[in-house]
Amino acid sequence: MKKPALAVELDDFDRKILAALAEDGRMTVTELAKRMGLSKTPAQVRLKRLTDSGVIRGFRAIIDPARLGLDHIAFTEVKLADTREKALQEFNAAVRRIPEVEECHMLASNFDYLLKVRTADIRRYRIVLGEKISSLPHVASTSTYVAMETVKD
Q: Are 70 and 120 in contact (CB under 8 A)?
């Protein structure tokens, strides 16, 4: 299993930098420094420290899935037949290879995992469920909930 990450001490400037970048990740260091009331070099040093420590894991484009025809979301409960460590590792490795699975969370519940699956429509979801998710290692059963509307993402 993955070791938990150690918490990093953040001051008010660090928190402001994170908030600004969460809002606009393409902001230049010069603009970031200006917004923080810092000169460019201290802002750059802080940004590097936040990146090197893993607080900032990366930068990416936020893509609108609906514009790509991928606005069908289903949440799938997965129960495993075996929950020993080796079985969990095999399931985790295999589920990471399914591109339609946007999120996968192990839960303390009456089922083992909750998947967020994004597809074009219910027909495509049925194929993903039948051919990919149900054939993952150690899957005993699944249950699906289809999202009607995303209120907050």
A: yes
8 pLDDT band (50/70/90 cuts)? confident
- Contacts of residue 96, Cβ cutoff 8 Å, sequence gap at least 6: 104
**Cβ proximity of 87 and 137 under 8 Å:** yes
Amino acid in the structure at residue 86: K
Confidence of residue 6 (pLDDT cuts 50, 70, 90): confident
| pTM for the model | 0.82
Q: Give CA–CA dist 54/52, Å, rounded.
A: 5
Can you tell me the distance from the alpha carbon of 51 to that of 64, in angstroms, rounded to the nearest whole number? 26
Q: In the structure encoding, which two tokens stand for residue 18, read together?
A: 């994170």
